[in-house]
Amino acid sequence: MAAAIDVLEIFESMVREALAGYEPPIKWIGDEAMLSFPEPELAIQALGALLQACRKEPRLPLTRAALNLGRSFAGRVICLDRPST
Q1: Cα separation of 6 and 15, whole Å?
Q2: Cα–Cα distance list, 43 to 7, 22, 85 (Å)
Q3: DSSP characters over 6-75
Q4: Rounded distance between C-alpha atoms, residue 14 and residue 24, angstroms
Q5: pLDDT band at 79; cut points 50, 70, 90
Q6: Do 18 and 33 touch, CB atoms closer than 8 A?
Q7: Taking the CB of residue 33, how many other CB atoms lie within 10 A of it?
Q8: Geometric angle at alpha carbon 41, from 34 and 50, rounded to 5°
Q9: What is the pLDDT of residue 56?
């Protein structure tokens, strides 16, 4: 259990670091982060950097991202999913 919590803390730290200068996550959903960006290009830049960093971190399993462009109650929403270990 402690190892899973350590991995989650690493992931959350990497998300926060990648979002420096952007909006903070809208919310955390277990091992997922829901993000919002004003423009799709900014989402692609931030997520590209985050995914590359996650792939270089050997303690993290494969990290995936899904992009959705469109209006919702929170604006444009991006979900980032890190599968459980």
Answers
A1: 14
A2: 24, 9, 26
A3: HHHHHHHHHHHHHTTTSPPPSEEETTEEEE--SSHHHHHHHHHHHHHHHHH-TTS---EEEE--S--TTS
A4: 12
A5: low
A6: no
A7: 25
A8: 50
A9: 92
